[in-house]
Design brief:
Layout (H helix, E strand, L loop, with lengths): L9 E7 L6 H9 L4 E8 L6 H7 L3 E4 L6 H9 L6 E4 L12 H8 L5 E5 L11 H14 L11 E4 L15 H11 L4 E5 L11 H32 L5
Parallel strand pairs: 1-2, 1-4, 2-3, 5-7
Antiparallel strand pairs: 4-6, 5-6
Helix pairs in contact: 5-6, 5-7, 6-7
């Protein structure tokens, strides 16, 4: 009788929408990170070959019937995992996803409850900075921390932290919701400089629509969290994460 396989310490979850060009390299790079077991790719209603490329690279693929947004995709993938640590990564990292190994090593060494990869600053101007600015302001106001990369999707966290994320955020509000839940619960959050690279949002109509949706989702998430905290205090001074 063969011995049962031990559960991995870490599983990776990659939400993806039309990322056929990069998802395969991202999966292979994540699989090379130490202690990472299964790499899950959640195909968020893609119309290209994202799911096939991810599966060919060795990922387990969860396909959503229609596009539901990043928060839904990420949480749907996390629900399939069993590891105590979850490594979240964007699908467009390509080979640079291998640099997330430092997050895994530091998490397993017990350095924090959530570690966020802070990418290097790019020279020049690549956006208006409104979404990052709003996220940074909101986390400082509601969580008491100023972060360099508040919207970085590359992070590792204890899976138990997901139980603290209430209300569930919309689409691009997931990073703010995760960080705020950790800070409000008194958990340790650490940013780590990591030389990752991903696609820059374009400065055309599609790019501005993306930024607009991101801004709305962040604003909704911050407002919902603020309302929940205020309501809890009015009910009897019970702190909620």
């Amino acid at each position: 009788m063969s011995a049962a396989c031990p559960e991995p310490a870490v599983e990776a979850v990659v939400p993806a929408y039309n990322e056929e060009a990069t998802v395969g390299e991202t999966v292979r790079a994540l699989a090379r990170c130490p202690a990472v077991g299964t790499v899950w790719v959640v195909d968020d209603g893609s119309t290209d070959s994202t799911a096939a490329r991810a599966a060919a690279a060795g990922a387990r693929v969860l396909r959503l019937g229609r596009r539901r947004g990043k928060a839904h995709a990420l949480l749907a993938g996390a629900a399939r995992t069993r590891a105590p640590w979850l490594l979240f990564a964007d699908a467009d990292l390509g080979p640079s996803a291998a640099h997330l190994a430092v997050l895994v090593e530091r998490a397993l060494a017990g350095q924090a409850d959530m570690l966020i990869a802070a990418p290097p600053r790019r020279p020049g101007r690549h956006g208006l900075g409104a979404a990052v600015g709003l996220a940074r302001w909101g986390l400082a106001r509601l969580g008491g921390r100023v972060l360099e990369a508040p919207l970085s999707g590359q992070r590792i966290l204890r899976r138990t932290l997901l139980e603290l994320v209430q209300p569930l955020p919309r689409g691009w509000g997931i990073e703010v919701a995760l960080t705020l839940a950790a800070l409000r619960a008194g958990l340790s959050v650490v940013e780590v400089p990591v030389p990752i690279a991903h696609r820059v949002t374009s400065m055309d109509l599609a790019g501005f629509l993306h930024r607009g949706h991101q801004l709305v989702h962040i604003a909704w998430t911050l407002a919902a969290c603020a309302w929940r905290h205020t309501a809890a205090r009015r009910r009897g001074g019970v702190a909620v994460p």
